[in-house]
Amino acid sequence: MDNDGASPGKIFIGGLAKDTTLETFNKYFEKYGELTDSVIMKDRHTGRPRGFGFITFADPSVVDTVMEEDHVINGKQVEIKRTIPKGSSQSSDFKTKKIFVGGIPTSVTEDEFKEFFSKYGKVVEHEIIRDHATKRSRGFGFIVFDSEKVVDNILANGNMIDMEGTQVEIKKAEPKKASNPAPGPAYGSGGSYDSGPGAGFGGPGGMYGSRTGYGGSSRYHPYA
């Protein structure tokens, strides 16, 4: 996890029940989108959970949807805050080889998805996100190129491109973390999570409609 907490897809979660496991934590937030990092902070002396943690989404815009809703994990309502204020210029300044693609026509196959983006540069990873139960496309996915420059070049022409006659949205995505290093600076002290650098962020979002993200019956709003 980033020690300074400055990541556009990263949120702070406070008020966690002490018996919340990382598995439960991840499962709860995975329904909103792909996770690239997660951690429940623990006391470095006792090893006991301190009641707060962090989640990083691959698509920073998912945070808008998460911020709209109330959240109850393990029977306890938790508090969600941004680690970067909404609208911060930092949200698009980071370097990455990975892009998020939203509004993909459901008829597009994995091979067609890769082939389409291969004209921009070498594709090393590609995935259209599918419903776990039905395996149907959820209308969004991710592409990883072999160079950050390819991503910058694509986005230099704007956030909308034409795929199969449909305008799809592209934006930078958070790369997956290789591992979870030791916890960074504590947010507050003595188990408090509301007085450190993570405090004070929040505000209404709502670019992407319902929690199901793209596809299905959810509301897709093109990038403004």
Q: Any overview of this molecule?
A:
- The chain has 224 residues and is an alpha+beta fold.
- The protein has two domains: 1-91 and 175-211, 2-Layer Sandwich (Alpha-Beta Plaits), CATH 3.30.70; 95-172, RRM (RNA recognition motif) domain (Alpha-Beta Plaits).
- It is 15% helix and 29% strand.
- It is built from four helices and ten strands; from the N terminus they run βαββαβββαββαββ.
- It has helices at 22-30, 62-68, 110-118, 148-155, and strands spanning 10-14, 35-42, 49-57, 71-73, 76-82, 98-102, 123-130, 137-145, 160-163, 166-172.
- The strands form two sheets. A five-stranded antiparallel β-sheet has the order 2-3-1-5-4. The chain has a five-stranded antiparallel β-sheet with strand order 7-8-6-10-9.
- The model is unreliable at 1-5 and 179-224 (pLDDT under 50).
- InterPro entries: Nucleotide-bd_a/b_plait_sf, RBD_domain_sf, RRM_dom.
- It is found in: Nucleus.
- Residues 171-224 are annotated as: Disordered.
Could you outline the blueprint of secondary structure elements for this entry?
Layout: E1 10-14, H1 22-30, E2 35-42, E3 49-57, H2 62-68, E4 71-73, E5 76-82, E6 98-102, H3 110-118, E7 123-130, E8 137-145, H4 148-155, E9 160-163, E10 166-172
Antiparallel strand pairs: 1-3, 1-5, 2-3, 4-5, 6-8, 6-10, 7-8, 9-10
Organism: Corchorus capsularis (Jute)
Pfam families: RRM_1
InterPro entries: Nucleotide-bd_a/b_plait_sf, RBD_domain_sf, RRM_dom
